[in-house]
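Design review, sub-item: ligand-bound model
Attendees: FS, YL, KQ
YL presented the inputs for the uridine-5'-diphosphate complex:
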Amino acid sequence: MDRTLIILKPDSVERGLIGNIISRFEQKGLKIVGMKFSRIAPAVAHEHYAMHKGKPFYDSLVKFMTSGPVVLLVLEGNNVIDVSRKMMGATFGYKAEPGTIRGDFGVSSAFNLIHGSDSPETAKAEVSRFFKAEELFDFNRALEPWIYDLSSGNPQ
Ligand code: UDP
Ligand code: MG
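KQ shared the predicted structure:
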């Protein structure tokens, strides 16, 4: 099973959308293995968005991400990185397809509600950036056999 880091950005919290967004992931069948409410420190935001350093939106992005509390989530599931990125939609709210989180709830390019890791390598680095090992939980949900076909031993 794969894991990914999701951040419900300060606009999700301020707009009262966090329950709705978390529900979408739960309804999809993805497992929440880590979750906390936190304010991201500037140094951590700089590190998290280091790949965008020098771009015109970098300074305002760091300011936005540190402006208030966020929800940090670690989701687990089959192909969870691709699945959650698809559920998030395209980066800009005004371009994101209806049915996606960004497509349904936003129209901004900057205030786009949610971050999700974009590759297995970044997921690994991002999960450990925000979560200690003891803040992540290994547990079996009773409904797992109805989310995945487990008859072969591997989730299908
Ligand atoms: N962003 C922005 N203006 C841009 C591009 C990106 O404000 O022209 C912000 C936006 O909040 C986005 C974040 O910077 O989510 C990171 O950009 P990236 O291209 O990595 O998009 P994502 O992976 O979040 O879809
Ligand atoms: Mg990105």
